[in-house]
Amino acid sequence: MQCLLSENPQERLQYPKILKQLEQIFKQNSLQKTRNLSLKQINNFFSSDQNNAIENENNDKKITELMTKLRDQKNINSVEQIKKLQLICYGQKKLFQFKKAIETQLKILKICEKNQITDILTEAQYLLAYLYYEQGQLNDAKQYFELSLENTQKLKNQKYEKIADCLSSLGSVYKELQDFNKAKFYYENSLQIILDKCGQNDLQLSDIYNNLAVIQMNLGQIQESIDLFNKSINITKKIKGEDDPQMSLLYSNLGCLYLDQDNFEMAELWLDKALQQNIKTFGEISVQVSDCLTNKGVLQMKKQNLQEAETLFLKTEKIYEKIYSLDFWQINQKIN
């Protein structure tokens, strides 16, 4: 659950009116990224031919047909019933039927509790929590992340990765609740587990350092935040290489931090790095490049280069028009 500083329009309401016009796009992009991450979580736990069929199928009608077939299956045991329901839940998420997906996941929990299938129960609780998190139902998310953590810790064969995931997810919930001290507590506990089990060269550390950097920024600990962003960048670069797509997100986060501090020289350095990386990885017509151009537009606004800012925002609009063939917003008035 990565915290992307550049994707939160609410943190930038102090900027001129033009940024508010971009809010719908930021929300659209954030929804897509969280949805993809959740699907990846489910895919990692439940793998089957039917699961792959849903993942590889882009036709909503065929997804619906497969879900109907699953519902019609009879005379299967509890574990098979759980897998069937999870695949249905997976399809519901693909169709953006989040309320139905939550209802399906609750059915899975009841089966697990009734039949005392503890190992699947903890994972089901985690996935339900993540569904609630995606929908902004943070108190429900917190409740089920806590239950998943508690039950995972009780398992004989504890998986430290799952414990670390639960702790990190609770950190993300508290971050959204603006309780940054509690968020820091959970992120640091997750960090310690990974350090103890894997040492300094584990990719999970990059996400945790990135999240902690955002927390420290919100707590006003700017130098600590910069140091943590740099740790995240260095780990990802060492393990996955400088050309990995994740690098552009980290560059952008650090650039936005410098931007918030009015350190324009360093902000431009890191935002340019992010832009060039995204062009190389995704091409010039991509959501990622559009985000970078938006951040650079904010930079130019803060530098009072208003004509350049307007040019960058208009480039952003044109990219989204080409991607979605829709006008999400229009900029009809020059900045003045």
From TrEMBL:
<feature type="repeat" description="TPR">
    <location>
        <begin position="206"/>
        <end position="239"/>
    </location>
</feature>
<keyword id="KW-0677">Repeat</keyword>
<feature type="repeat" description="TPR">
    <location>
        <begin position="248"/>
        <end position="281"/>
    </location>
</feature>
<dbReference type="InterPro" id="IPR019734">
    <property type="entry name" value="TPR_rpt"/>
</dbReference>
<keyword id="KW-0802">TPR repeat</keyword>
<protein>
    <submittedName>
        <fullName>Uncharacterized protein</fullName>
    </submittedName>
</protein>
<dbReference type="Pfam" id="PF13424">
    <property type="entry name" value="TPR_12"/>
</dbReference>
<dbReference type="InterPro" id="IPR011990">
    <property type="entry name" value="TPR-like_helical_dom_sf"/>
</dbReference>
